[in-house]
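**Backbone geometry record:**
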Amino acid sequence: MKIIQSSVLTDADKLNISRLANECGLLFDTARLLYSRKIDTKEKIKAFINPSKKGFLDPFLLSGMQDAVHEIENAKRLNKGVLIFGDYDADGICATTVLKLALKDYGINALYTVPEREDGYGLNVEKIKDLQKTSPIDLIITVDCGISDKDKIEELEKLGISVIVTDHHEPPQVLPNCTVIDPKLSYDEYPFKGLCGAGVAYKLARALIGEKADEYLDFVALATVADSMDLSGENRDIVCEGLKIFNNNLRPCFKYLLNDSSNKTISAQSIAFTIAPRINAGGRMGDAKCALKLFSSTDENEIYDLGVKLNEYNIARQVECERIYDEARQKIIDLNLAGDSVITVASDDWKAGFVGIVASKLVEEFCRPVIVFALQDGYYKGSARSYNGVNIFEAISSVSDLLTAFGGHAQAAGVSVSKENFLQLQSRLNEYVNRVYGKPDFTKKIMVEWKIDGKFSPRFAKEIELFEPFGVGNKRPLFSVDAKSLTVKQLKFGSPHVSFMAGGIEMLYFNGAGDTERLSLNIDKEIVFESNVSVFRGKEYFKGYVKQVVADYGDFSTIENKLFENALLAIKDEDLPAYGVKSVAELPENGRSFGTVYALADYKNLEHYPTLKDLPVCMHKPLYKNFRNCVIVAPYTRPDGYDTIVYLDKPLHYAKGFKNSYQVEGLIGYKKIDGVSTDRTDFVQVYVELEKLLGKSFNDLNSLYEHSTKAISREQFVFSTAVFMELGIFYSKDGVLKRDANAKSTLTNSAIYSKILSIKG
């Protein structure tokens, strides 16, 4: 895992930033953040921190807009039947809703529909024919689809139906022979290319009914966030204006999709993590029209029922996604795919509506592009997500001869392939990525703005809040601070969340309780955090929210006492077998790059294994989640995803759970026990010392030793105390040393004592 600083300032940069800060009345650091995001003039800064309708662009700059308006005017004048055809995701549903409402304002009561996922993406001629049986359809306006439907549009025109395409996806080489509005067209004069499908629909609405279309900007904001569009340029203005509607005039259709009915401010994050998943859940569960009905209904009871249904769909979606994720992850392990440059995994038992979410989770875990396929209509239909600058759309395009359909953009794409061509697709995609990008570096990287080596002022934190709305393309800035041993506190008893001070900043680490030991170790570590300003009872509070802790295990000598303590405490009655081998080269697993843990009891013994020197080295558990081979000092249990462990020296205990266990013969990993005695008189001395320490607070046995007279060696004190605590004679209550006066036992009843006694003979 690498922490990378996003920018290094030259002297010229510093002068420009100082000038901007003075001109705009901002701190130097705030101006630096803006400058690094190419917001480098007073005018750009003013527009960025004050997003509004003033940033909206003229819809008639979009090629095809004038023709579309004329066609719709003609349809209204001749009373033609109009159908809006959208997509089944949140963007398509919002786009359909925006145009339906706008056309009604314009004087056209249009039909509207979206397909279900099982019907496939894009225009569906058979569905349209069915609709035409009951209602005349003379003009179809697509939203969030249609750009790749040239053949279907020709078929519709033969039926006497005209088509206007409004879309935002990458255009194919040959466009449909009809009016097309898409900001991504190469000849388009529209300055901003990042609109979502609902954004393009809104532009058509603006061209038809003017500023009245602004009433629907909450739908456009929702679609922009849900479709992971960059929150820069015009999208920033659109989302900001849409959030005003969310917060000042919340529609009933959104009320029941929010987790909390209190008066909390609705942000882009609220939309992304609460509302959008529920809208998408309908389509993923085979009922996309549920959200479309919700957005169209004016009946309070129906709105409530539909909102409840979408919430239930979302829960079912989460359960199903987790199942597919677990199965896909296991397939990657079983088929040894974790080292591929593009991971492709498929199953006949998965549903196509969930594979995109699963692909995104797997990308985060394996740090490489992933395509997850599900069987549908006899074909594998997949959803691709990219990583680390790999243009997945271009990669998929390179194997188009194998595909039945594909589309998308650089970071995400959809693809369909026959089962017969799947393995060839798998092979050629990896060949392409390796050829074009070299063997890509898929190391996990965390981008921070800079490392904090001074004070992080509350004013700076408040000025960062001016960057809202945060999201894709405008992420909340991350910073880092160096730390060593940290004093960690639970937020409250039993809480998984902890807090600590680092760099003079109070840090909150959500779900960080399991990381307490690593935080408190006296090793170099870098804390990655984002700033947060909250208000409680009228008072502002500034804190850092921890996003990552990156520990440097380059020097284990500073924590060898802790390693000895942990090794003692991990001793159990039973020992696990391990197959003996003379050297690493003899291992049947030798040569695998994923799935193997090389275990050390004594970190110094690594010098005997020069072939492993380039592997990441860590304590107790891997640094990465992608099953990359690694060296772990003193592992306790099997890290998730690893099936093989190789003990490079003989440990005091063996970790459970591995499918394959090997022991390289020769080296001993517990030389530190040479300094301990199993003699009863030495235990009596430690007992007397512990009685003097009753009531002392401590985190571990080594910290308890620091309170002692140190007349006894550290190793003896830690060993004896571990035995006494295993026997229940002494114990910790809320971190305070206590003694059970009624507890009586012999030393040999302790597994720790018995194991050391047997080793020492």
User: Anything to note?
Assistant: The chain has five domains: 2-48+448-551, 59-297, 335-439, 556-672, 676-760. Residues 59-297 form a domain with the inorganic pyrophosphatase (n-terminal core) fold (CATH 3.90.1640.30). Residues 676 and 716 are 5 Å apart (CA to CA).
